Amino acid sequence: MFKRYAIVGSGSIGNAWAIVFARAGKEVRLFDIDPKRLEFASHDIFSRLEMLSKHGLLSEEISVIADRIQYCDELESALLGAEYVQECAPENLEVKQEIFRNLDAISPSHVVLASSSSAITTSEFSSETRIRERCLIVHPGNPPYLLPVAEVVPAPFTNPHVVMQVMENLQEVGMSPVLVHSEIEGFVFNRLQGAILREAYCLVRDGVVSASDIDRIMTQGLARRWTVIGPFATSALNVQGGIKAHVSRMGDSYARMGALRGQDDPWTPELVEKVSDDIDRLFPVDKWSENVLRRDEALLELNKLIQSSTAFDLSH
């Protein structure tokens, strides 16, 4: 797949992507118009590589990986020989539009152009360019060298071959790509995160619980469990009988909670069937006890790791 990468923007996400690609053996050119930011980026990246090495997450010497990254204060230099561009500019529509106009003017016709945008869609910043068929979103969790998931969000005009190339390439560099089928604001990662935050703010506002205790419920409860399995699989294993049994038992209660927040998004039989078909394929109902045991064993390992490391205690 792609051998040489250009990254536009040397902020925290740009630096993190540089680590992802260089750690996977790829040549990287990191561009920023500010030489001082590039100087800081080189120190920042080396420091992060030292941290990864300390925890056994590098398969090569730090210097070998760091030497794969070049720093450029001219966009043309960064694009020289590049097959893939990862734009990592601030979340500002006008800034991204300007960058993609520049990429339109100088990028070779074979180069894939991805944006790390967290909410702004490809259609908003590239629809008027000649390069739009090569443009799409590749939005990572932060930092991507520790959180491997990446949302791949094409625009309606993105070439399907480009989407396929990007999905395969992300897997090659150690990421876990998720194809998002619709250009919605916030995509999936931030919509899920936003839903939790909205409810958390409401609970604090209404005097139900303190902010710090909400974080404790997350870190010592929900988030710990979601480290092992996601919310749908959690539902399937919480009630013997899988997704449908969980909806039968808890669906009305969740609907009332949503109605209190002005939401009217019923879990229709058709929707439940769709979710059940997907999740029960991974966690068959007839193997419920076996899968619960697998979940618990994974949680046991996680708890042992947490108890043996002070790094997990961020409360002080």
Structural features, described:
The chain has 316 residues and is of the alpha/beta class. It folds into 2 domains: 4-179, Rossmann fold; 227-312, no CATH class. The protein is 53% helix and 12% strand. It contains 13 helices and 8 strands. Strands 3-2-1-4-5-6-7-8 form an 8-stranded mixed sheet, with helices on both faces. Strand 6 (135-140) and strand 7 form a beta hairpin. Helix 10 crosses helix 11 (242-260) and helix 11 crosses helix 12. The longest helix has 20 residues, at 35-54. The radius of gyration is 22 Å and the shape is globular. The mean pLDDT is 95.
Count structural domains. Answer: 2
User: How does CATH name the architecture of the largest domain?
Assistant: 3-Layer(aba) Sandwich
Distance between the termini: 45 Å
The SSE string, one letter per element, is EHEHHEHEHEHEEHEHHHHHH
DSSP E strands, number? 8
CATH superfamily of the largest domain: NAD(P)-binding Rossmann-like Domain
Q: Strand count, sense and closure of the main sheet?
A: 8 strands, mixed
Low-pLDDT segments, ≥5 res: none
Question: Which shape, going by the Cα principal axes?
Answer: globular
CATH class of the largest domain: Alpha Beta
What would the average pLDDT be, to the nearest integer?
95
> How much helix is in the residues?
40-55%
CATH fold group of the largest domain? Rossmann fold
Sheet/helix structural class: alpha/beta
**In angstroms, what is the radius of gyration?**
22 Å
Strand content: 5-15%
The main sheet orders its strands as 3-2-1-4-5-6-7-8
Number of helices: 13
